[in-house]
Amino acid sequence: MQVRDNQFKKDVIWNAISSTTNGMINMIISFFVINFVGSDVGGIFGFGFSTLGQQVFILSYFGIRIFQVIDISYKYDFETYRKHRLMTFALSVLFVLCYVFSYLKLGIYDSDKCIMLILICLFKAIEGIFDVYECELQRKHKLYLACQFNFARVVISTVALLSSMYMLGKLGTYGIIISLIIFIVIQIIFGCIFLFTKKSYFVVESKLTDETGEQKLKLKRLTIEVLPIFLATFLDFWIFSLPKYALDIFTDNHTVGIFTILFMPATLMYLFVNFFLRPYLSTLADYEKENNIEGFNKVSKRMYFISLGIAIAGFVSVVTIGKPVLSLIDMFTAYRYSSVLEVSIPLLLLIILGGLIYSLVNVRYSILAIKNKQKPMLYCYIACLVIGIIIAWQLVMRFEMYGAAFAFILTMLILLGMLFMVK
């Protein structure tokens, strides 16, 4: 029991470190990029990393994270998950190419923005490949190792990006492109070295060959089984990001950059809630497998309270220290975002309110996924997406950033209500 408790504490600590780093890294990159190459490019980076790139990451890992982690009976071996991830990686690359070139053809993007977004999204797609190894470590109750890997990989590749951009930023677009290529290469090299040192955890249990067709059959079954989870996850983040997608279409890069910075607290809440929930997922899956209703409900309530506590703490923080923090942001970004302070605090409070609602959505999603309610969830997400697009486009066209904030709140309320209707 003591060994298990120590393991849990180690998992929680490293999960906190890794998730905090992931939450802060987008903000850090955006701030430094703004200083090195200007606010317009900073807006592209902010949108690329926190929105489109994250959407591509979800497509790359195909929403399988929870499914693989809770597959404690090893219905599918690691080789099946690994091959499936390579397939979805290719799909994610195809998706971003179609998305970016469609916007280029429509005249929404220029060629420089297209190249930068493709490289940023390629980095995030490769993260999707590494994620399958992190999930396998967690499935084998080595979450702390997965978090150590994630933490080190993100920090080292980010230092490489910012260092190269500082030295090459004066070269303009070419310098930025070279920096992004270095960013990708460093991630691949470090990731491969780390995984090689931990290769004993990724032994292929299955001896099946493609000649029998059994491996292909397992890949097909896995795809069919996780498709509702993927679609729910993909649509969930799409709905979460609808205000930023609308701003990207109807406003300029500078405005997108401002809103991306102001949206960071909501994104941080999303990530913090995730890292607090992550250690409980295996426990919740065990209770569901054992049909332990009392234990399942107890852990579920704890997850709701933790999520709500994080959200309220974020709201209180904005009220108490929001203005000084935004003043520091303006100083740090060399006053390129001086207009932030003119609209910031009320707008930030609206965004935090939307983030509070979304944190509850996130908990409800995890619980329903473990209870195998994927199909009803999918119907909720499809309906909410259609409604959300209409709301976001209409409000953003009329009120820009304030419209985006109100659209965020309304859409999250609709989604939360729909998910609680699923029993």
Write the layout of secondary structure elements.
Layout: H1 2-37, H2 39-61, H3 65-69, H4 78-105, H5 111-139, H6 143-168, H7 173-197, H8 214-250, H9 253-289, H10 293-332, H11 340-370, H12 374-420
Helix pairs in contact: 1-2, 1-6, 1-9, 2-4, 2-5, 2-8, 2-9, 4-5, 4-8, 5-6, 5-7, 6-7, 8-12, 9-10, 9-11, 10-11, 11-12
List keywords for this structure.
2 domains, 423 residues, globular, 0% strand, 12 helices, mainly alpha
What does this structure look like?
By secondary structure, the protein is an all-alpha fold. The protein has two domains: 207 residues, no CATH class; 197 residues, no CATH class. It has twelve helices and no strands. The longest helix has 47 residues. It is globular and about 55 Å long. The mean pLDDT is 84.
Q: What is the tally of beta strands?
A: 0
Give, in order, the helices and strands. Answer: HHHHHHHHHHHH
Low-confidence parts lasting 5 or more residues at pLDDT below 50?
Answer: none
What's the number of domains?
2
Q: Strand count, sense and closure of the main sheet?
A: none
Q: Give the CA-CA distance, first to last residue.
A: 34 Å
Number of helical stretches of at least 4 residues: 12
Principal-axis shape equals globular
* Averaged pLDDT: 84
Give the gist of this structure.
By secondary structure, this protein is mainly alpha-helical. It has helices at residues 2-37, 39-61, 65-69, 78-105, 111-139, 143-168, 173-197, 214-250, 253-289, 293-332, 340-370, 374-420. The protein is 86% helix and 0% strand.
